[in-house]
Automatic annotation (TrEMBL), chain A:
InterPro entries: EFG_II, EFG_III/V, EFG_V-like, EFL1, P-loop_NTPase, Ribosomal_Su5_D2-typ_SF, Ribsml_uS5_D2-typ_fold_subgr, Small_GTP-bd. Gene3D superfamilies: 3.30.230.10, 3.30.70.240, Elongation Factor G (Translational Gtpase), domain 3, P-loop containing nucleotide triphosphate hydrolases, Translation factors, Yeast translation eEF2 (G' domain). This is Elongation factor-like 1. Residues 17-369 form the Tr-type G domain. The keyword NAD does not apply. It comes from the Eukaryota. The keyword GTP-binding applies. It comes from Cyprinus carpio carpio. Residues 886-917 are annotated as: Disordered.
From TrEMBL, chain B:
Belongs to the SDO1/SBDS family. Pfam families: SBDS_C, SBDS_domain_II, SBDS_N. Residues 14-101 form the Ribosome maturation protein SDO1/SBDS N-terminal domain. It is found in: Cytoplasm, Cytoskeleton, Spindle; Nucleus, Nucleolus; Nucleus, Nucleoplasm. The keyword NADP does not apply. Residues 109-170 form the Ribosome maturation protein SDO1/SBDS central domain. One of its GO terms (biological process) is cytosolic ribosome assembly. Required for the assembly of mature ribosomes and ribosome biogenesis. Together with EFL1, triggers the GTP-dependent release of EIF6 from 60S pre-ribosomes in the cytoplasm, thereby activating ribosomes for translation competence by allowing 80S ribosome assembly and facilitating EIF6 recycling to the nucleus, where it is required for 60S rRNA processing and nuclear export. Required for normal levels of protein synthesis. May play a role in cellular stress resistance. May play a role in cellular response to DNA damage. May play a role in cell proliferation. Residues 172-235 form the Ribosome maturation protein SDO1/SBDS C-terminal domain. This is Ribosome maturation protein SBDS.
Amino acid sequence: MGHTSLEKIIALQKKTPHIRNLCILAHVDHGKTTLADCLVASNGIISSRLAGKLRYLDSREDEQIRGITMKSSAISLHYTTGGNEYLINLIDSPGHVDFSSEVSTAVRLCDGAIVVVDAVEGVCPQTQVVLRQAWLENIRPVLVINKIDRLIVELKLTSQEAYTHLQKILEQVNAVTGSLFTSKVLEERAEKDAEAQSSCTENGSGDQVYDWSAGLEETDDSDLYFSPDRGNVVFASAIDGWGFSIHQFAEMYSQKMGIRSSVLLKTLWGDFYLNAKAKKIMKGAQSKGKKPLFVQLVLDNIWSMYDAVVTRRDKEKVEKMVTSLGLKVMSRDLRHSDPKVLLSAICSQWLPVSQAVLSMVCEKLPSPAEISAERVEKLMSVGARRFDSLPEQTQELKKAFLDCSADETAPVIVFVSKMFAVDSKALPQNKQRPLTQEEIAQRREQARQRHAERQAANQSAENALCAQTEALSVKTAVEEDNKEHFVAFARVYSGVLRKGQKVFVLGPKYDPSLALRALPEGCSAADVLPSVPHMACCTVDSLYLLMGRELEELDEVPTGNVLGIGGMEEFILKSATISTSPSCPPFTPLNFEATPIVRVAVEPKHPSEMPKLVRGMRLLNQADPCAEVLIQETGEHVLVTAGEVHLQRCLDDLRERFAKIEISASKPIIPFRETVIRPPKVDMVNEDMGKQQKVAVIHQVKEEQTKYPEGVQVDSTGLVTLTTPNKMATVGVRAIPLPEEVTRLLEDNVELIRTMEQFSLFAWEDKTLDINQKILENIQEFKVKLESNLQGRKWRGAVERIWAFGPRRCGPNILLNSVEGYRRPSVWQCLEREKETEKAEIRDFDNSIASGFQLATLSGPMCEEPLMGVCFSVETWDMKLSAPLAQQDSIDEDSQTAEPNIDNQNESSDTHETNAAGSSVDCYGPFSGQLIAAMKEACRYAFQAKPQRLMAAMYTCEIMATAEVLGRVYAVLSKREGRVLQEEMKEGTDMFIIKAVLPVAESFGFADEIRKRTSGLASPQLVFSHWEVISSDPFWVPTTEEEYLHFGEKADSSNQALKYMNAVRRRKGLYVEEKIVEHAEKQRTLSKNK
Amino acid sequence: MSIFTPTNQIRLTNVAVVRMKKGGKRFEIACYKNKVMSWRSGAEKDLDEVLQTNTVFVNVSKGQVAKKDDLSSAFGTEDLTEICKQILAKGELQVSDRERQSQLEQMFRDIATIVAEKCVNPETKRPYTVSLIERAMKDIHFSVKANKSTKQQALEVIKQLQQSIQIQRAHMRLRFVLPARDGKRLKEKLRPLIKTVENEDFDEQLEMVCLIDPGCFRDIDELIRCETKGKGTLERFSTLSEDV
């Protein structure tokens, strides 16, 4: 078949019933791209000799090097059968788990799918996944069993064995489809049951008749399954270029043997054999030990062909076969030393795979016009919304979908499933075309003129300027060239999309009912319209026909076709719906099988290239449907990808296409929190504390962990008293652990606390801030909840006495005012505005205490991470202040309050002293600053006087796994300190759903490990859930006899908390209690015998 | 008569000498390399891992052992271990290569952490990560000085970094209220110190919310306090990096 011209394809695009949109799906390495190659070769785009080796649709360099497909790419093919011409829009998809998002984007645009299964490996995890994806998108699959040659050449099966093997594979595939079907039926059943039950309770009828049949019997599922006699299975070897369906052989033999082809079709696959004497086809080949018809008529022929060509290299026999088949083989191929060449030369003529596959596709897969009503409803109803609940105009659009008409009047509906980046050189506008004669002449003329001009200009002084501008224009052109262009990968569902047309671009969150209310009746995208959220108007810049690695420009694309749209990068982030009607709903979001879970922090090698990286990451975010890009509060740029391979590709993309700089990826920074707990009752070996005799510590003298400097007194109950350096003030602070519920409550109500804080701030300035009633109610509710959670003697009246929240005035820590005789306005004063209780006074330096608390909670003593769930109760606060000093300092109090960090950092501490020198000479700096520092230190010591613990961020992790890999999942989880919460079986399948929690610190590489260990049968999903106290004490050393026995003297083996703490301290450059050399003797460098 | 044969000669290798002068005499002890600092910081708790031998010398390299009389007169005890501990704690030593290296590394990290805390990327208004700052510091060939405080060095680094990457001190948000009389006069003086004025309200008194460079805080503070004679108030909200 010759090269198909562009005109032909354009003509075919208009015949909707003759279009087939399909994608090739399979497990990795089952031969999708090779099969695609064969199909491409049939159109003369590549040579059939190269088919299978070139991998034409793998256009990226790393795809070629690694030998796996990483993106879905489309190509339009032309196929003629029985006088009918078909346009086949073929989308090749990747098989690797990491790129299953690409599969989702491909599946959405298709009506049918070719599922490829390796004849040797059978059904693999990804095969199940793609079958499920096809099922969820309601598209019809056909099956290609590929690599049959491996059964012959590698496994050396006999044709009989091969037949049973193929049968088994077919059964496996059908089992997967069957389970999908049953789970769907069961789901529907459950829904129905639930409805029935609710109606039952309403009726209150006593006698319930329960129907035990699961509904499976009633639903017909026979048309779902794959079977060769139904014509939806092709046996092939794409690498050798052959493939067949039973259909072909039935035709062939019906002529030869005089049996009706319809009979043959039914009997060629299955337990039938040919009774040579009676010339009859009989049932029960297996029981009678006869060769089944399929083996005798089909497989044996192929086997003997391989035997002759590959194994024995029998030239005469080959020639005989070739002539009997009526083929012509070039003598060059016959003489070739590699038998494979000859084989593919013969086979590709005898049983061309493209013929078999394409004819099956055209016959069995639906055209865009045959889109089912069910699928349309599914596409149009976002999320849990039911189709019926959509606005009326939207429901009318369903008709447009079903009609699929290319009329002028039909509304245009296009779905963009992904954006992909194209080098501007690859765009057809910029492509070099052979010049026509006139053009050449014209250019010559221009060149001549320019030459003349230059000569003229040479004399004038202007030439320098001229050259400069010219250089400039060249430069801008170059810059333009480097720009990445984005092309939207899309399909037209209705109407005709034209170049230059004005359309609405609807984001995934767009709501048609909102827009319909906002927009006038019958408006179009060309009018000036009020802005509606998630909707934009734009003009279609250019349309492309996707031809693998090339693009062809088009002027219009009628309904039912897959296309590329240029110039949309401003409007579309990842996916969108394009329509001329504002009532069009956005399509349901793509079903992603793999959610992105592998997180890395990305940084440029050279810090000055930061802006380039930011830009590059933005582009990457747009170009990849599955990659996520986040900027953390810490300034980290985090890239989240679906897996290691996907990550590699994203990094390569960043390096070579989007950012064009050197980058490095590293573990993201893991946050921790510090907290205190109540003294534990049992020790590390679960013995009661206190009963044990503390053994004499052998080597290490267990010292007090913190040596308190002078001026600090700590009593046995954990009350820390500290005096400022000038001996003017003394504060007594105690740290108390907050109940878990309170911490959670504080965390959830950050916004409320912030509002309250703002109010107090204004009140302090004698102003009022208006807070609306709703928020006030919320605050009241919050207060009540706090009170209910802070019960007991210790917490009596605590809620009223709250002084501040921290850190940053709204965190999960509390400062409590327990100073006797000090009544300060409470933080709840916004609630009591009306009552106007007696004015409570604010002591001088009140703010300093609060600031000290803020600073202490911002970075704890363990590893300078924020505190969480700690309550600092100020129990004493004595001031021996002479009045004038107080006067003087209270003036600058507010200036000093919150600036101790400046006050340390500032170079000019001397200037300050001169200020203070005015009234009293204080060598320790301003008093308020001292008080802040003292308060901060007091908090820190109070914290250290209690049992300290680290808190780790936890992920909840949901893992879907089959029963056989369950053990390995558990192994990986426990190795990484994970904890399984629950495990249950998914109804109707053999999948288990495991819920576990996993520390964020252990999650790096988790997804990859679990996939490797379970050969891809388990896929985790991680979501941040909460903070959890790590039960082990980072400062713990063994003290009792049992602990020595259990952990040894040093006990440095298993302390997870210590490990985390030291890692953070090391990262921050804090002091880590660690020996530089572990064993002094082992660093001997000089020779002994000198 | 004692015979010096190689058999009763103990050769020490891998020695770090700690010296101390006390009572007019010099005492030395022989320790292992890279261990003395760990002992002093408390990380190493096993004395045998620090001392090669608990003999106190007058000169380690010559093998001259200190006399008992000298020891008891200088330290007031004859317990060698006790004396060794005293010398270990207070004596002077040559800091060995790895000790110095780890110390400098730690300071380098500390400086980078301080810089990262204080600065933001002016484009995104977000802080830089510590590792990026470290790399930038290496790029400008910054070398740590062991005898200067890390905070001081961090401030120097920020100035140097501003030439190579986009970096800025995180702005400080201030609000001050000035009496109307002084307001006009002071405003002119304050103008050069203020980066951006976010909010300005001038009726009975001048109220301003503005962003400043933290380095100017002292100047502004002083200016307001002196010029208004304590009538103006100044309040710091937060650094900008915390807000975004």
